[in-house]
Amino acid sequence: MSHSKPINPKRKRRVYAAKEPPFPVPIATLTNEAASSSQWFYYTGYLHGDHVVVKHSGDIDFLYKMGFFGKGTMSRSKPEFNKRCRTAQVPDDSGFTVPARLMSRRSYLRRLKWSNTEGTEGDEYDSSQEIIVERADEPESKDLRRENTQHDNMERNVEEVLIRDAGSNSPSLLKRGISPSNAFFLAYGLGSLIVYGENQEKLLLSGMWKIFCQRRKNFVPKYIAYHYYRSKGWVPKSGLKFGSDFVIYKEGPAFYHSSYSVILRMVDSETLTTCTGYPQRDLDWTRLSGLSRVTEHVAKELLICYVLKPSSLSEEEILLPSCISKFKVKEHVVTRWVSSQEREHKQVEDMP
Fold first, then answer.
1. Residue 151, phi-psi category: left (phi > 0), alpha (psi -120 to 50), beta (remainder)
2. In whole angstroms, what is the distance from residue 145 CA to residue 134 CA?
3. Any idea where the tRNA intron endonuclease catalytic domain is (predicted)?
């Protein structure tokens, strides 16, 4: 059973993030100032395989706060790995400087207890490579101590070194991976992302589109759907956990739970038959029922998004970003039909 009745997004009980603009660019309706080139923000990304990596810590923070773009490589969502696991430069016996983690005393004692537990499997915990700090949440802490089980009598002066941005000689551990759909929307839809290729050449929009089409066979329908939902105010994220292509949030995952699990279908605009050449899942009734049950179990709705490809559109034209405006999108919300609940004339059953 399909319908198009929208549901009310479920707001999270505890919200710890401040509400920021929906996109990482100046918006005239929010700032009350006309957008100009002097106020425009530009971010830098680097092509790595089939995705784009953002390395600069400032770019990472802005892309997360304003639109929730990408996924942290060392964190689940919010880019806070460098705050939780800071590093320091510790001199070694050989004279070289080796990186060591900074952790709170509580975390150190917990790990020390684990290492002393009998029957512990895996690599032994090396306490000599850890530094204890009294307050791990204080970025200006200078009083560091290093416990060395092999050289207890050796006194060393340890100096804390802040992790610098990606442009310096000491790269940050935290990076942000951006999918092709995210990257091209930032570059094409917002004009705020500059992407460099694997040979450090600046990529044009046409070159970027062609590379993504070659490296990801389903890039075209995914980007059309991604652009569509972004323009509607939704925040699409990966739906791999729920067996779908996207899950979409109102305002962002920091404020609301995802409302819909989205399944993409690339079809011909005239015949509505599935387009060949694009990897798509088979939606028979058995699989559709299973997806519906899983989606219902996590308090979401199953949404099938049909990307309508014009019959006159050739394969050569698809390799150019000018084809984006020629696509159309239709969507249907799918729910399970339960006979006892969907009858027109419900009868009250007498209990024996």
1. beta
2. 10
3. 219-308
Amino acid at 200: Q
Q: 28: part of which helix (H) or strand (E)?
A: helix 28-31
Residue 274's SS3 state is strand
Under the banding of pLDDT at 50, 70 and 90, the label for residue 70 is: confident
* Mean of pLDDT over the chain: 77
Strand pairing report for 260-268 and 246-250:
antiparallel
Contacts of 13 (CB under 8 A, 6+ apart): none
CB-CB neighbours of 96 under 10 Å:
8
Give me the sheet containing 97-104, strands edge to edge: 87-91, 97-104, 130-133, 145-146
CA–CA distance, 75 with 77 (Å, rounded to integer): 6
Residue (of 313, 312, 324, 303) closest to 220 by Cα position: 324
Q: Which residues contact 50 (CB under 8 A, 6 or more apart)?
A: 180, 212, 215, 216
Instruction: For Cα atoms 332, 219, 179, give the angle at the middle one, nearest 5 degrees.
Output: 100
Report, as residue numbers or ranges, the catalytic residues.
249, 257, 300
pLDDT, tens only, 255-291: 999 999 999 999 999 998 988 888 888 888 888 888 9
Domain range summary for the chain, segments of one domain joined by +: 2-80+173-340, 87-146
Closest CA to 224 of 181, 273, 269, 280: 181
Structure token digits, residue 12: 């999270």
Residue 25, helix vs strand vs coil: coil
Q: Write down the pTM of the prediction.
A: 0.72
DSSP 88: E
Per DSSP, the three-state class of 172 is coil
